[in-house]
UniProtKB/TrEMBL annotation:
<feature type="domain" description="6-phosphogluconate dehydrogenase NADP-binding">
    <location>
        <begin position="4"/>
        <end position="112"/>
    </location>
</feature>
<dbReference type="InterPro" id="IPR051783">
    <property type="entry name" value="NAD(P)-dependent_oxidoreduct"/>
</dbReference>
<dbReference type="Pfam" id="PF03446">
    <property type="entry name" value="NAD_binding_2"/>
</dbReference>
<protein>
    <submittedName>
        <fullName>NAD(P)-dependent oxidoreductase</fullName>
    </submittedName>
</protein>
<dbReference type="GO" id="GO:0050661">
    <property type="term" value="F:NADP binding"/>
</dbReference>
<dbReference type="GO" id="GO:0004029">
    <property type="term" value="F:aldehyde dehydrogenase (NAD+) activity"/>
</dbReference>
<dbReference type="InterPro" id="IPR006115">
    <property type="entry name" value="6PGDH_NADP-bd"/>
</dbReference>
<dbReference type="InterPro" id="IPR036291">
    <property type="entry name" value="NAD(P)-bd_dom_sf"/>
</dbReference>
<dbReference type="GO" id="GO:0005737">
    <property type="term" value="C:cytoplasm"/>
</dbReference>
Length: 262
């Protein structure tokens, strides 16, 4: 049985770990506080309390990394911590790493962005990606998600506080539902797509005006103020590579049809 360790069982990592267990994998998961251990045990995930921002040497990384695959699903940008983790990985059984990244590594180019477009070298997240990709101790697949939405993450709630406005209202949005994030990572593992970089984004790209107007209307929040501009700064994330290589059909291809009532 393939064993997988999920570093960071939060908004994305927890449902991912649960889904991997249901697909027959042996899963270990990490949280940052002991209070969350019971929730992992309840879904048959072996729990660990770990913190990349703490003193790594004093934590139980050796046991946690006794797996075939490591999925990194934490928002930390602590390069020192990740450098220490990579050092530990070199003497672990881990063969493959999936690094959850973001399309924020790309600058706005007012055009379609594929994986062939160079990421910003000044992006800390891209620098961390590179630390993993350059290691010869394991292979790394980087998956760059667009804006994460779904379930407890309703973008309309951002505007519950008054005074928040939106610039570039006619620029297209790049979003992806949690369910597609989980299934895409699962398919990367099942199909063994290693040493790759993937963009992951829904098919549709409505304008900010359309998207956030509907998102706020769904929960009865006042429509945000839009800062009008003659020119728009944007990027449109292409998902063609990941759809083609995984033969994947999105669960939520149209972000305007996403419901947040669960």
């Amino acid at each position: 049985m393939t064993s997988i360790s999920v570093l960071g069982c939060g908004w994305l990592g927890f449902p991912l770990a649960k889904h991997l267990v249901s697909n027959g994998f042996a899963v270990k998961g990490s949280v940052r506080s002991k209070e969350k251990i019971d929730s992992l045990e309840a879904i048959s995930v072996t729990p660990f309390v770990l913190d990349i921002d703490g003193e790594i040497i004093d934590q139980s990384w050796g046991s946690f990394l006794d797996s075939d695959i490591l999925i990194i699903a934490i928002p930390s940008k602590n390069q020192t911590g990740f450098t220490s983790l990579i050092s530990i990985l070199g003497s672990s059984p881990i063969k493959h790493v999936i690094f959850v990244s973001s399309t924020s590594v790309y600058t706005d180019n007012n055009a379609v962005v594929t994986e062939d477009v160079a990421a910003s070298e000044s992006s800390v997240l891209f620098q961390i990606e590179s630390l993993f990709s350059q290691s010869s101790a394991f292979t790394t697949t980087v998956i760059r998600f667009s804006g994460l939405v779904g379930y407890q993450r309703n973008p309309g709630r951002f505007f519950q506080k008054s005074g928040r406005s939106i610039s570039n209202p006619d620029a297209p949005v790049n979003m992806i539902h949690q369910d597609d994030c989980v299934e895409l990572i699962t398919q990367i593992i099942k199909q063994e797509k290693w040493d790759e970089v993937f963009n992951a984004c829904a098919d549709s790209h409505p304008s900010k005006r359309e998207f956030y107007t509907k998102a706020t209307q769904q929960i009865g929040v006042k429509t945000p103020e839009f800062i009008e501009s003659e020119t728009q700064t944007f990027k449109i994330i292409s998902n063609e590579k990941i759809k083609k290589l995984l033969d994947y059909e999105f669960i939520y291809p149209d972000v305007m049809q996403i419901s947040y009532d669960i």
